[in-house]
Design goal:
By secondary structure, this protein is an alpha/beta fold. The protein has two domains: 6-121, 3-Layer(aba) Sandwich (Rossmann fold), CATH 3.40.50; 142-217, putative n-type atp pyrophosphatase, domain 2, CATH 3.90.1490.10. Helices cover 32% and strands 27% of the residues. It has six helices and ten strands, in the order E-H-E-E-H-E-H-E-H-E-H-E-H-E-E-E. The protein has helices spanning 15-26, 52-62, 76-89, 103-116, 129-138, 164-172; strands at residues 6-10, 30-39, 44-45, 66-71, 94-96, 119-121, 142-149, 184-190, 201-207, 211-217. The strands form two sheets. Strands 1, 2, 3, 4, 5 and 6 form a six-stranded mixed β-sheet that branches. The chain has a four-stranded antiparallel β-sheet with strand order 8-7-10-9, covered by helices on one side. Helix 3 crosses helix 4. The chain is globular and about 45 Å long.
């Protein structure tokens, strides 16, 4: 457990990374900034598909700088390391991640930190997935389901508010309640970290063979 120093965090805009950041702050670690990977081809954040305009609004609402790592898939790891290197130069000693229990993810994150001399910290590591999603909800974080993997979860969940009732319905459909296996991704727009809710508009959905995405903007 890290209890002192300064941290940068890998921030997806979703519930797990947000909860990890919230926990680290409550433990007394000071945030110097957040880094979010941004797909230069799709022009939204990687995995959660959040446009940069909304990420700017999140930055204003939480009062922590967000740096976009603008990258292709081929240069993803190198550009991530470069961003961490810059964060270290600004005083960060630790990088916070929201991963829960997938060893391959932990190794990738730890390897990136090792390359630049930062400690990797996983505040949620090896905790019960169900408890984590309920903690995020009960702590007051408000989120919508932004992306659904059509092979793992019914696309009808796209755009749903993440509530206890929604989580139970996800479980009834045989999917992981926390979405740790990629069943769904969220966009957090309000909660304890936020000075005010981030306003956004839903402008439709986009469905491919594998995924359904909720298109939102400011």
């Amino acid at each position: 457990m890290v209890s002192t120093g300064k941290f940068v965090a890998s921030f997806s805009g979703g519930k797990d990374s947000t909860l990890a950041i919230w926990r680290a702050i409550k433990q007394g670690v000071i945030p110097t900034g957040l880094v979010t990977t941004y797909n230069i081809d799709a022009k939204v954040s990687w995995f959660h598909g959040i446009p940069d305009e909304l990420l700017s609004r999140v930055q204003e609402a939480i009062g922590i700088p967000i740096s976009l790592i603008r990258t292709s898939g081929e240069e993803y790891a190198v550009n991530f390391e470069n961003a961490l290197r810059g964060a270290k130069e600004c005083g960060a000693q630790v990088c916070v991640f929201g991963d829960i229990d997938l060893e391959a993810h932990r190794k990738w994150c730890t390897d990136r930190c090792d390359k630049v001399g930062l400690d990797a910290y996983f505040p949620l590591w090896n905790e019960n997935r169900e408890s984590i999603v309920y903690e995020a909800i009960d702590s007051g974080f408000k989120a919508i389901i932004k992306v659904v993997d059509n092979s793992k979860l019914d696309p009808k969940f796209i755009g749903s508010q993440l509530t206890r009732e929604t989580v139970l319905k996800i479980k009834e459909h045989g999917a992981d309640m926390c979405g740790e296996n990629g069943e769904y991704h969220t966009f957090v727009y309000d909660g304890p970290l936020f000075k005010e809710a981030v306003k956004f508009k839903i402008i439709g959905t986009k469905k491919s063979e594998n995924y359904t995405l909720l298109n939102i903007n400011g």
